[in-house]
Amino acid sequence: MSIQTKNKTQAGFSLVESIIYLALFVMLSTLLIDCMIVMSKSYVETRANRDLLDSMNIPLERMTRDIRGASTVVFDSSTVFGTNPGSLKIRNSDGTTETFAISGGAISFVDTDGTSNNITSNQVVVDSLIFRNISTSAGSAVKIEMTLHSLRSASHRSISLSDTVVLRGEY
User: Fold this and answer.
1) Cis (ω within 30 of 0) for the bond into 59?
2) With contact defined as beta carbons under 8 Å apart, do 140 and 118 qualify?
3) What is the pLDDT of residue 158?
4) pTM for the model
5) 62 vs 78: CA distance, rounded Å
6) Nearest CA to 65 among 167, 134, 153?
7) Which residues of 39-61 are buried (b: 16+ CB within 10 A; e: fewer)?
């Protein structure tokens, strides 16, 4: 009777070892996929925040600069104070006019010859734009209130802000 011995070349993985290796592979793969999903969501949220900040800063700076340099606010049917959607028409010292209003969910700027330009991102919707007139014996000011939300974010991220601008061209 001879006892058979296994050669090292015939040795393989046992079933238990294979299951352990497979379990480790599955855990590491799951961890890697989860990290990729979290990074992807983080990127989308960061991009939505960037869109909101850009769509807040650009129109607010433009409106602030133009209102500050305006000589008067035009009080006609194109200027709507205190309600949403508001619109504001200003007259510059050279006689040209500018109008700010909501058009298709974006803030639009219309100059004297009727040329209209959107000044917010197409990834952001302007929910509210309200202008308020402030008049004193010393001069006039306009308060701007707006609310925007991002179309990119699944969490419907939004931002609200306000600013008050004194018309310097008036004094």
Assistant:
1) no
2) no
3) 80
4) 0.70
5) 19
6) 167
7) eeeeeebeebeebbeebbeebbe
